[in-house]
């Protein structure tokens, strides 16, 4: 099947954007995996699909598939690329766009300097809504929150993780040096941990000062990416609640810098997280997607 696409990236997290506002391609997980494959397909961390608004309350539907072909609830870097795409493609004259995802509605604002600010909604802390299964673990209180001593197979001592959702699940670890962090070793062991029924995105955060952090993320369904927007949001929210960070933080990831703001300790935990960062088109193309099952 011949499918036009636009390749985009947000802080090095890269995407294939498919426009289904005029026709549906009805791709299956094997075909999404093929598209994302960096040797046999186009190559990307995620595939983002633009669909018509499902209700008058939003402008578009925003659908996300990981490189492993699975559909997921949210993608922060992708949201920035989404609004850049729909504006540049002339699908909307608006510079502020509301989109429906599987996990809720996001508001996306194109800034004059080309960056994009996304209202990512409120973080979710209830374990059962992440979802996370803490039964039998003794929480470790810190700041106004807690961490969990996760028993990671093949790792001698329990690993302290903060657990929360940005619509998608996140486990956040604090490390002294992201460059030395065991991302490739611990990432998959935690991503597939039995206490995360829907698996989890794993963030490794180094706190530089109360307004600056470095972060690497081993993403659910994609492996380590150069940046993870929801991961940056989750890491900053965790750092604020645990007493390590102030409410506005510049997060340096391997592919770029994201600014995350969350006034949750001042305005209440239901305060929304705001993320600002880049969104760039890279190239357009047409690809013949094979029949795969
Ligand atoms: N791997 C994530 C989806 C993409 C998130 C990331 N690319 C972002 O920018 O938020 C998950 O399975 O929940």
From TrEMBL:
GO MF assignments? diaminopimelate epimerase activity
Reactions accelerated catalytically: (2S,6S)-2,6-diaminopimelate = meso-2,6-diaminopimelate
Q: In which pathway does it act?
A: Amino-acid biosynthesis; L-lysine biosynthesis via DAP pathway; DL-2,6-diaminopimelate from LL-2,6-diaminopimelate: step 1/1
Which is a GO BP term held by this UniProt record?
A: lysine biosynthetic process via diaminopimelate
Q: Which PROSITE patterns match?
A: DAP_EPIMERASE
Q: Where is this site: Could be important to modulate the pK values of the two catalytic cysteine residues?
A: 170, 219
| Active site (UniProt) | 75 (proton donor), 75, 228 (proton acceptor)
Q: What Enzyme Commission number does this protein have? A: 5.1.1.7
Provide one Gene Ontology cellular component.
cytosol
Cell location: Cytoplasm
Does this entry carry the keyword RNA-binding? Answer: no
Keywords for the protein's UniProt record, in alphabetical order = Amino-acid biosynthesis, Cytoplasm, Isomerase, Lysine biosynthesis
The EC category is: isomerase
Residue positions annotated to bind substrate are: 13, 46, 66, 76-77, 168, 201, 219-220, 229-230
A Pfam family: DAP_epimerase
Broad class of the protein's primary localization: cytoplasm
What NCBIfam families does its record include? DapF
- Subunit details: Homodimer.
Tell me the protein family, please. Answer: Belongs to the diaminopimelate epimerase family.
- Name the chain's protein: Diaminopimelate epimerase
Organism listed in the record: Tepidimonas aquatica
């Amino acid at each position: 099947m011949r499918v036009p696409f636009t390749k985009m990236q947000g802080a090095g997290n890269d995407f294939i954007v498919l426009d289904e506002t005029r026709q549906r391609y009805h791709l299956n997980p094997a075909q999404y995996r093929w598209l994302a494959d960096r040797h046999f397909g186009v190559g990307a961390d995620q595939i983002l699909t633009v669909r018509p608004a499902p209700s008058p309350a939003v402008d578009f539907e925003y659908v996300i598939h990981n490189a492993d072909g699975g559909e997921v609830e949210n993608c922060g870097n992708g949201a920035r690329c989404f609004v850049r795409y729909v504006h540049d493609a002339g699908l909307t004259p608006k510079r502020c766009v509301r989109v429906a995802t599987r996990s809720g509605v996001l508001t996306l604002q194109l800034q004059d300097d080309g960056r994009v600010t996304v209202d990512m909604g409120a973080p979710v802390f209830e374990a059962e809504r992440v979802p996370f299964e803490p039964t039998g673990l003794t929480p470790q209180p810190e700041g106004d929150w807690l961490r969990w001593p996760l028993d990671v197979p093949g790792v001698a001592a329990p690993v302290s993780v903060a657990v929360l959702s940005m619509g998608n699940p996140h486990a956040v670890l604090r490390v002294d040096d992201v460059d030395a962090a065991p991302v490739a070793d611990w990432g998959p062991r935690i991503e597939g941990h039995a206490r995360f029924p829907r698996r989890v995105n794993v963030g490794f955060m180094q706190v530089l000062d109360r307004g600056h952090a470095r972060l690497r993320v081993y993403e659910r369904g994609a492996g380590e990416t150069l940046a993870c927007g929801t991961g940056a949001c989750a890491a900053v929210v965790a750092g604020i609640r645990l007493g390590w960070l102030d409410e506005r933080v510049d997060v340096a990831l391997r592919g770029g810098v994201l600014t995350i703001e969350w006034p949750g300790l001042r305005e209440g935990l239901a305060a929304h997280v705001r993320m600002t960062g880049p969104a760039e088109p890279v190239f357009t193309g047409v690809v013949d997607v094979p029949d795969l099952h």
